[in-house]
Amino acid sequence: MTTPGREPITRADVIAVLAALGDRAAADVTERIGSLELAWLVSQVEQRYDTTLELTDETVRQMSTVTGAVVTLRELLPGAGDG
Amino acid sequence: MALRPASRSRAEDAQAPPFPSGAWVHDALLAGDPGAPCLLLGRSPVTRGELTCLVDKQQHLLELSGLRPRGSVALQLPPSVEYIATLLAAWRAGAQVSLLDHRLVRREVDNALERLAPQIVVTARSATAAPMAGYARVVAEATERAGGRPAATPHVLIQLSSGSTGPSKIIARTAADLTGELGRYAQLDEYPKRGERIVLLASIVHVLGLVGGLLHGLHAGVQLAFPDRLTADGIRDAVAIGAEPTVVLGVPFHAELLTAGGSPLPQLSRMVVAGELIRPWLPGAFTARYGVPLGTMYGMTELGVIATDLDGRHHPGVAPAPGMSLRVSDGELLVKMPASPYIGLVDDTRWVDGWLRTRDAATIDQATGLVTILGRLDSQISVGGLKVDLTEVEQTLCALPQVDSAVVTYGTVIEAYLVLRAGASVSDVESALADQLAPYKRPRELHVLDRLPRTATGKISRDRTVLGAAAGTSPAVGP
């Protein structure tokens, strides 16, 4: 994962985090994110970026796929936006 | 709670068997210091007195809706104070309560209600919860159900089996059985005691969270904390919210979540998990991070807690809980039980001559009495007179480098539902299996899925109907 607060989170970062749950290969991470995977992803990102994500029902819904999670996390992580 | 009136005939009541009064609810669960906080939802405490007031209110509303002693209620609410108060209220009113997981879909609920025939169904008219919260705020609604019948048995609690193995069973427990389980918890020295706190991550609809968490907490004077967020930081916040010695009660996933990061918490005295086998490295990793044990428990919906290793000293062994008699017969763990826990039993081989067949493979160390659970056993089938252990087939499949995960079932032929690893093909799996298993053991059909379906409680489903439906969108390939 990139340096907290400096670089935008990438798809590879999200997949790497998800793959760590169950010791999977990155290629075995599915596009759809289940509820346990989401709890794992949020926990790991909050820990690594030392932040608490401001989640809403909408952002949680958006994070049900890897693609949506990448977009949402880029918006939520302080100082880690891609703009 | 909104109400719709119910009505029942005197003839129905006259035919009902003796049913316990609801006095046990006060005696075992509600009695105690009314000023002491018994629940903690995020940072909001609910005292025992406040909870009792809510129970009074819910009982009044249920009785206004027509509920009478020996009545029947189905409760389908998310984890909430309203769920707790309504459950206790219905019990205290002398009713039999069926618990339905709030995540069940309409078809599953309709099927359950058809089988259970409750007189009153309590559901959420509205429910709000913060994202990923461990509890909800609910407006409950009680509705009379046409064709509902009063309790036909003296059981106060009805639960459906998880459905992970075949058609769900109706599991019934008496008040005496529940208070007996509370007595077992009270005798476990390492289990939370008065003045301590449980951070409750396990569902309070299912036996671990319901009896081991909610009812034990109320019975023993242990505060129950429901986290604002079911994330690692959210759980740690719930542990750190007060000074009381704290036990985290959950399933193995929660332990993995906490083990992935974080610093020792001075309040944390141990974590206890149950519900499925844990990965071998987890207890050591958890203790290395937090300096406290990761304990395990083994139990069943039919009986509650059966065996424990709360200090993590015996892993993977567990010691029988006080009063539990266990033996192994033909590799299967049997638990002594005075009466069948099933209503409308379909499979009458599950409870035989005072012993419940767990369908779990196990060994018992004769020297220590410790039990090691090996996995599910209800998987041996006969193919042309040859015995095949489907667990063996499944484990063989799962061990293949081409396979991510798999479930093997048997209807008329052996079938496998599997998730492939990237780049693997069905023919690769077939070739690999040919090296691993005799021909009669090999699955006749391989159904490739994107992911294995899970039950409402998160367990991988073994229901062939569910698996078949999932496979409907994926190719089914025969060898």
What does this structure look like?
The complex is a heterodimer of chains A (83) and B (479). The model of chain A has no long low-confidence stretch (mean pLDDT 85). Chain A is mainly α and 83 residues long. Chain A has helices at residues 11-20, 35-49, 57-62, 66-76. The longest helix of chain A is centred in the middle third of the chain and has 15 residues, at 35-49. Chain A has a single domain, classed as ACP-like (Non-ribosomal Peptide Synthetase Peptidyl Carrier Protein, Chain A, Orthogonal Bundle), CATH 1.10.1200. Chain B is α/β, with parallel strands linked by helices and 479 residues long. Chain B has three domains: 10-173, 3-Layer(aba) Sandwich (Rossmann fold); 176-376, Rossmann fold (3-Layer(aba) Sandwich), CATH 3.40.50; 380-477, GMP Synthetase, Chain A, domain 3. In chain B, strands 1, 2, 9, 10, 11, 12, 13, 14, 15, 16, 17, 19, 20 and 21 form a 14-stranded mixed sheet that branches. Chain B has a seven-stranded mixed sheet with strand order 6-5-3-4-7-8-18, sandwiched between helices. In chain B, strand 1 and strand 2 (44-47) form a beta hairpin. The termini of chain B are far apart. The model of chain B is unreliable at 3-14, 162-166 and 473-479 (pLDDT under 50). The chains are: A mainly alpha (83), B alpha/beta (479). Chains A and B meet through helix 2 and helix 3 of A and helix 9 of B.
Quick overview:
The complex is a heterodimer of chains A (about 80) and B (about 475). Chain A has about 80 residues and is mainly α. Helices cover about 50% and strands about 0% of the residues of chain A.
List keywords for this structure.
heterodimer, A: 83 residues, mainly alpha, Non-ribosomal Peptide Synthetase Peptidyl Carrier Protein, Chain A, B: 479 residues, alpha/beta, Rossmann fold, GMP Synthetase, Chain A, domain 3, disordered N terminus
